[in-house]
Amino acid sequence: MDTAMGGNLSKYAPIFLVLALSGVLFLLRNIHTLERWNCQSVSSLYQLQSSISSVFKPSGPFLPLDQNHSYCPNLGQEASGEEAHEERYLLESISWPEPPALGVPVRQSSDPAHSYFVIQPPTDISGRATWRVGGKLEVLVHMQNFLGQPKRYGGDFLLARIRSPEIGAGASGWVVDRQDGLYAVELPLLWAGAAQVEVTLVHSSEAVAMLRRLREERPDRVFFKSLFRSGFLSETTICNLCLPTGPRQPALCNYTDPHTGEPWYCYKPRMLDCDTRINHAKGGYKKHLLTTTESMLFLSSTIKAPVQALGMDNITILPAVKELSLVRRDRAKFLPSGYYYQGSWRPLAGIPIQQFNDSSAITQCLQGKLFYMYGDSTVRQWFEYLNAFVPELKEFNLHSPKNVGPFMAVDSVHNILLKYRCHGPPIRFSTVSSSELRYVANELDGLPGGHDTIVALSIWSHFSTFPVEVYLRRLRHIRRALARLLDRAPGTLVVVRTANPQKLDPEVSLYNSDWFSVQLDSVLRAMFRSLRGVVLLDAWDMTLAHPTHPHLLHPPPDIVKNMIDLILSHICPAKQEKKKS
Ligand SMILES: *[C@@H]1O[C@H](CO)[C@@H](O)[C@H](O)[C@H]1NC(C)=O
Ligand SMILES: *[C@@H]1O[C@H](CO)[C@@H](O)[C@H](O)[C@H]1NC(C)=O
Ligand SMILES: *[C@@H]1O[C@H](CO)[C@@H](O)[C@H](O)[C@H]1NC(C)=O
Ligand SMILES: *[C@@H]1O[C@H](CO)[C@@H](O)[C@H](O)[C@H]1NC(C)=O
């Protein structure tokens, strides 16, 4: 047997050799092709980027702002009827005053260092010059340019707040643009003690005009890419909500979502089919968006810069008076959604907040619940907080990439399930597998919902580089899905997180400015306010009002804890212990 075998082997050896050699040759040839294609796809990526840049490149330094948007003819289906009406209304409601002329010299733009604010005397009609709890503080901001001349028009983006760091108290103010270079700020007086007023110029009106132009004309300033792969071949191409097409451009792969109609495109790889898309990732940020002169409007010293007080920047707030008539006359017209006191968030409307300092209280509250979180990294923070703080919750390893997800944590003893999934394109995460790329609206349609279901959404940050219409359409699809969910399962608790201010520098401003965020945020609030069963979590105020933390895109644990307390207070409302007297 053995010898026969040996004989057979030696007889076939040349054939095996030939087979093995041709296999190696085939492999080598393919590796070579693979490398070649990789090189080509990289170089074509650069060619494409530069041609996209030239398509979008503004021809002069100062283009009219309301330029025709025809760069993107395929932004998805149009709204109709009531929704079209709503869209016009919403866009109108966030219209922002523009400088009267384009190309104002930088020295005539608003300068925080030359501007100042003045605390107005108390409005107490009794003549007592005192500020009391329950009243308001009025501040007038005078904007001036770099030459020290008063500004005569509005449009500056200002933020204001009042705070008492020693008692962990803070509240945001309401800024009214008088459109003559003056801004009236109203600050609610909600606690007694010494308090300091802070006015911040986020961007001058001239810088805002530039951001608006970028938003409308350079939606490609963050670009995306996808890897396509089949066998030994792989290619990477550029992707976006819309891409320039033409005889000199490659064909498109159309990934428009069949359910929602949300558009998404990639350039077609040369060798591969559109259905070989493996993943989706942020491609990068376009540079050199502004001319040297234009970039002078975005100096570190003028972005989120403090405006100083002329005279005092602090007041002493006295305890409230009993005379109701005085209080009423004095009361703030605009109340924020809440404020901080001793480091804890106190909502001014809605249900009272409870503090869940012990993880056991959280476990008790979440017992039997299914908690789904969808959106960007700011809602992923909630997953991370709960997962880290509650020892009974064990993260189930789905082998997902770090920071991308999807993620899941379970407490099988108390039947608690926590899930996180990122929203669909234009998500700017590192690399999301194509098979995990889902639209929130479609995910919501897949939830049965019910009294034991909690849904938390946070969708805003990754839309800042697109015209507002793109965001509006996305929210419309999500709102329709939420309405369906709340209709089939009215007990479902839905929490929608708003945007929040963040740290800005000259570069970040062009992609992620708070101005983009505040515009999207107004739309978000308006669209979800009217949907019954939806809780809006005011992350904007919870960040802006915080007495000591600077603005961070990802608010620190202390703020996240207050947010979680608020959500848990909605899941497990406090039992009414005593009747109101
Ligand atoms: C934009 O330009 C196209 C073609 O030039 C025109 O058909 C369209 O009506 C314009 N749209 C607006 C809003 O001006
Ligand atoms: C992409 O597909 C959608 C839906 O199938 C279609 O409405 C849209 O016109 C297509 N886009 C292009 C550029 O062909
Ligand atoms: C209040 O403002 C005045 C004038 O700017 C300053 O001298 C004083 O130290 C401030 N008081 C507090 C408590 O910050
Ligand atoms: C929770 O912790 C905060 C801060 O340490 C404390 O002020 C508060 O009284 C605590 N609340 C409860 C209900 O234990």
TrEMBL record:
Pfam families: Neurexophilin, NXPE4_C. One of its GO terms (biological process) is nervous system development. The keyword Isomerase does not apply. Residues 345-572 form the NXPE C-terminal domain. The chain crosses the membrane at residues 12-28. Coiled coil: none annotated. InterPro entries: Ig_E-set, NXPE4_C, NXPH/NXPE. Keywords: Membrane, Transmembrane, Transmembrane helix. Belongs to the NXPE family. This is NXPE family member 3-like. It comes from Clupea harengus.
